[in-house]
Amino acid sequence: MTSVSDELLPLYRQMLQIRRIEEESAKAYVQGKIGGFLHLYIGQEAIAVGTEAAITKDDNVLTTYRDHGFALARGTTPRAVMAELFGRDTGCSRGLGGSMHMFDKDNRFFGGHAIVGGHVAVAAGIAFRAKYLKQDNVTLCFFGEGATNIGGFHEGMSLAGLWKLPAVFICENNLYSMGTPLVRTMPEKDLTKKAPGYAMAGDRFEGHDVLEVRDRIAKAVERARAGDGPTLIEILTYRFRGHSMSDPGKYRTSEEVEERKKKHDPLRISRAKLLDEGISEADLDALHEEVEEGVQDAVKFAEESEPAKRESMFDYVLAPEGDADA
Ligand SMILES: Cc1ncc(C[n+]2csc(CCOP(=O)(O)OP(=O)(O)O)c2C)c(N)n1
Question: Which of 41, 99, 116, 240 best tests ligand 1's pocket when mutated (most atoms within 8 Å of CB)?
Fold first, then answer.
């Protein structure tokens, strides 16, 4: 029989890897080594990692621009993620996508989407393909609470509900759309109340405990796989950093953030549970050291890789030849 620590330790390791990769990328960003925007996932790691533990490699995942955690959880290597952030040819999107557009077809990670809510319809399309071809994979689509007010969200959800697609739609409600708190933009605070409008099941829970996330996502995935249609899940979470690196965060107090870190840090919660289960501080230190080696290796790899190639810019564009000049 497997113990809690047998299950939790590899998940803790993955969350730690995501956190450390992101902390290093924040450092590289302020040093001017990363261009464009950088949206960190710090504080929300239990969601990507718990989800991965609930699905198979044949399932599909799509998310927003806050995507590094999902790429890593799906199996994109730290080297390929860091190289993508640095705009290098060795990155998972050949350095052409950057932070917001990570993509890894081999790991069935279909982005990294910058248009808020736009990928909900894309996810419905991927789920439709599975149903049409009678494949048994499930498509999981993540977005923020701000996205649930967007037309693309409604369009995708409506078709997914109508066709009972094998999909799970997951709102990571971190309370703020950029600098705007949810209470100022939405009349209804329980977002799963939108689910019946699309003839979907709904579920709502806190996303700080990675094992709980795994178990709750697994139920919705099971429902989708059994042909019983999609679920809209709202996971209550919190981002510890600004919306992106350029966000000074004036819309919330440092006391609020500190309080959340104390009570809701998914790494802190899992670490405490592991210690309770008899894992020693020394074991955890060794794990941290091992993760750190991989992170430093990824930074070095990114720094030493060739920049994205100008000539490969159009290799991945889906448009008829000749249209570029039209
Ligand atoms: C269609 C569209 N409108 C506006 C923006 C600008 N924008 C980028 S992120 C963001 C806030 C989204 O908040 P939420 O969906 O809650 O996601 P979170 O960043 O909190 O994960 C906005 C308005 C955009 N990228 N796309």
Answer: 116
